[in-house]
């Protein structure tokens, strides 16, 4: 009987949202899967993409570039997002030391997604372990800073580590999945039912008001990335809603890499 309750937490979408506009400057990211859900070989896509193809793209062959991870870190560094604390724009490259600093970049779905409240609560509760490893936690969600503040205040979640990406620029660059099927019908989404107690605890103060005004944002999937400077050490795209990266994998990456 748990499944119907969890399903009721997902905001309803009465009509499919309009297709995402094509952006000639969009750079996507192809990831080649390795055992355990990790992605290590990556390739930047520099050609224009038709609407919605970044989300639906299949993994590509590895890049021939000598250091593709650094190329990705460099590209992401120029993406502008917004601080939930101040509402001011900030570039990714200003959020951690781009030479030797370690950062976990958690791309949530949208601020009105119950599964993202659960993920945010787990990240909050794990923050001390990131701090002890010298790792900066950066949580990004789809929506405006005022929507981010709703999650931060009601969950709660520390504002200084929360950022908003209303135009989904980082999601597009990293090639994260997008679409109705991925959001509501992907088999990976059933994983959330195994965490029902955690989900129920996270949404005690939940409100649908945190959902982005642009309802297309509810079809965006997230992912988890670990950087040392500009080098990408770990990348995982969520296959469906609630299909989050195993936190033990993320912590293992953070703890095994020496921090200067």
TrEMBL record:
Q: A Pfam family for this UniProt protein? A: AhpC-TSA_2
Bilayer-crossing regions: none
Where does the record place the region Disordered? 50-69
Q: Tell me the InterPro entries matching this sequence.
A: PXL2A/B/C, Thioredoxin-like_sf
Record protein name field: Thioredoxin-like protein AAED1, chloroplastic
């Amino acid at each position: 009987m748990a499944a119907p309750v969890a399903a009721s937490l997902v905001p309803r979408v009465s009509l499919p949202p309009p297709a995402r506009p094509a952006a000639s400057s969009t750079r996507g990211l192809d990831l080649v899967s390795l055992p355990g859900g990790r992605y290590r070989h990556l390739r930047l896509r520099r050609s224009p993409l038709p609407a919605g193809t970044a989300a639906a793209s299949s993994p590509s062959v590895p890049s021939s570039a000598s250091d593709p991870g650094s190329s990705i870190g460099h590209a992401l560094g120029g993406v502008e997002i917004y601080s939930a604390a101040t509402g001011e724009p900030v570039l990714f490259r200003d959020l951690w030391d781009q030479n030797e600093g370690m950062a976990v970049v958690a791309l949530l779905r949208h601020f009105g997604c119950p599964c993202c409240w659960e993920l945010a609560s787990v990240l909050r509760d794990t923050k001390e372990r990131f701090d002890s490893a010298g790792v900066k936690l950066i949580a990004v969600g789809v929506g405006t800073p005022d929507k981010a503040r709703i999650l931060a205040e009601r969950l709660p979640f520390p504002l200084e580590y929360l950022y908003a990406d209303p135009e989904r620029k980082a999601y597009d660059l990293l090639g994260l999945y997008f679409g109705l099927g991925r959001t509501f019908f992907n088999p990976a989404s059933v994983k959330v039912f195994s965490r029902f107690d955690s989900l129920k605890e996270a949404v005690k103060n939940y409100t649908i008001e945190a959902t982005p005004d642009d309802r297309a944002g509810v079809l965006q999937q997230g992912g988890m990335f670990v950087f040392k400077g500009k080098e990408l050490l770990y990348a995982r795209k969520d296959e469906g809603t609630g299909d989050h990266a195993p936190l033990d994998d993320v912590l293992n990456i953070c703890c095994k890499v020496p921090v200067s």
